[in-house]
Amino acid sequence: MSERAAAIAPGSLRAPVMITAFEGWNDAGDAASACLEQLREAWSAQPLAELDPEGYYDFQVTRPTVRLLEGVTRIIDWPTTRLTACRLPDAPSDVILVHGIEPNFRWRAFCTELLDLATEWQVSTVIGLGALLADVPHTRPVQVTGSAQDVATARKWGVSGSKYEGPTGIAGVFQDACIQVGIPAVSFWASVPHYVSQAPSPKATLALLHRVEEVLDVEVPLGALPEQADEWETEVSQIAAEDEEISEYIRTLEQREEVDEPLRPASGESIAAEFERYLRRRGPRPGGR
Predict the structure, then answer these.
(1) Average pLDDT value for the chain
(2) What does the pLDDT look like over 242-279, one tens digit per residue?
(3) I need a labelling partner for 3 at 20 to 30 A (CA). Which of 70, 100, 111, 159 fits?
(4) Using one digit for the tens of pLDDT, what is the confidence trace for 58-70?
């Protein structure tokens, strides 16, 4: 059973959009979970609910942690999934963030519990965020693939469909569960270069935040992520330059990407539409600029 926070009452959020990220298999380079952490801090998220972890986790695999409170009291933090709420007065909808760890057991019951909360809070749309390891070069824009409940929605959000078939994680299972009960759901997956998979991966996190910005049609606070992404790419390039074998491998990936995924020129209409959306999100600047 989930435990509820009393500060926010069901029905008090405006057509909330639920954004999910799950640590583990679904979160290469911690890119998706870092995205939610950025949103939670930037939007002053308030506790909403958390799932009782007892039936979902193997605590020998995903262990609880101990921390000291004021250097004296020992506090146990149990691994679980937590929901927080963000009120966005300048956006069409408020936001519910779902940040958790991929469960070890009872995935269908886990999804059912999240769906019950989504229904109770009248969630209008679910955005699932994830990141995967891929044969992509760090020097190119981050490839973001995904899926939606229908072709029209996929086109609306510019989702370039993934052709992946094989094992899936809780992110894919929960998206399917949402669609089965009629809640619109779209997912975005950032591709993280497998040769630099350790966290953090700010360039991938930034790419996911841009997708969230597009769907919500509101400015998403990016903090220091743009600078961190540039520094990350520069650092990886410097390390790669010291190893000829790695440098050659990256050049191979760049050439293959140019052949397999050629850049498609944007039309004048699409450029104008995107610029208008950008101006709406960013709003007026001091001095009218």
Answers:
(1) 86
(2) 988 889 999 998 888 776 654 333 344 443 544 455 45
(3) 70
(4) 999 999 999 888 7
| 98 to 80, 238, 267: CA distances (angstroms) | 11, 36, 36
Q: How far apart are CA 192 and CA 57, in angstroms?
A: 27
pTM, full prediction: 0.85
**What residues form DSSP beta bridges with 251?**
none
pLDDT digits over 1-49, tens only? 666 665 677 788 999 999 999 999 999 999 999 999 999 999 999 999 9
3-state SS class at 23: strand
Please answer whether residues 142 and 191 qualify as being in contact, where contact means their C-beta atoms are separated by less than 8 angstroms: yes
Interior CA angle at 176 toward 167 and 100, to 5°? 75
Burial category of 222 from C-beta neighbours within 10 Å (exposed 0-12, middle 13-18, buried 19 and up): middle
Q: Is 59 helix (H, G, I), strand (E, B) or coil?
A: coil
C-alpha count within 13 angstroms, C-beta hemisphere, residue 237:
10
| Calpha distance 101→90 (Å, rounded) | 31
Residues 6+ apart with CB under 8 A from 162: 145, 146, 147, 189
DSSP per residue, 117-168: HHHHTT--EEEEEEEEEES--TTSPPPEEEEESSHHHHHHTT-EE----S--
Query: In the prediction, which pLDDT does 71 show?
Result: 73
Residues 129, 32 contacting (CB under 8 angstroms):
yes
Phi-psi region of 234 (alpha: psi -120 to 50; beta: other; left: phi over 0): alpha
Reference 115, options 81, 151, 78, 148; nearest CA is: 81
- Is the Cβ–Cβ distance between 197 and 138 less than 8 Å? no
Pairing of strands 144-148, 160-161: parallel
d(CA 206, CA 220): 10
